[in-house]
Design a protein that fits this description.
Distance between the termini: 62 Å
Helix content: 40-55%
Shape: elongated
Order of helices and strands: HHHHEEHEEEHHHEEEHHH
Structural class: alpha+beta
Radius of gyration: 24 Å
Strand content: 15-25%
Strand order of the largest sheet: 5-4-3-8-7-6
Number of helices: 11
Length: 283
Amino acid sequence: MAAAAGPAGPADRALIVTEIPHGGLSTVRNAARLLKVFRSREADLGVSELARRLGLGKSTVHRMLTTLVAEGLIEQNPRTGGYRLGIVMFELGEAVRVHLDLHAAVGPVLGELRAQTGESSQVGVLDGHEVVYVDRLESAHSLRLFTETGRRVPVHCTSSGKVLLAYLPEARRQAVLRVAPLAALTPHTITSRAQLGAELDRVRRRGWAEAVNEREIGVASIAAPVRDISGEVVAAISIGVPLARCSVMALRRLAPVIMEAAEAASRRLGWPGELSSQQRKEG
């Protein structure tokens, strides 16, 4: 689609899209193009200017803005009537920054954890009611677990999921649990919300979580929380083992090592705190 006629400076030329690729949802694509216009970092932009840069009708742009404002992605300046990025975009940007910082922070720690334990080590983050493994190093043992980076696993039957649930603010935790299907993947999976609540209380008391035969028979894992500079838990670092090679008791003896690795990753993210003596004792 051709852009509106008229002279355009370098910034304008970078923002004007002259052709929309085939395929996909045009409304979503146009909304994405609209949001990208604000990368110019101007104070705010009016409907007419946005329509000109996008090569779209003003009524179309206004409808998109109305929807984006309702979702908090865009906000309207009450003084000028122009539009600018909303607070939700800031929150999304912070989430991206945390994940980028997280990868840099946990990489060396993950390598050290694998070297210390000899086991597969991974970092998971919460996405909806699932855990996504964003970084992982495989064990050198011939008998080991295979879980690829990017894999999603249920939140209620994994040690990482329990950690991430345990440290959520109460309202957010209840919101996740309302939509999380507590499916019984094995006879040992926790499917009672009351039992899961008690388990999460124990995770908070001792500072680590375990999952034994809960997602898959013959598999166990242990995890501890990774915090950012504000102290918020943003990830869980864990190791997973096949029970044919490593007993539950042997795995539990590694809890202090996992907690120390999580604390090291947290410090690399700027967290100034440290584990409580009670948690170290229970670990």
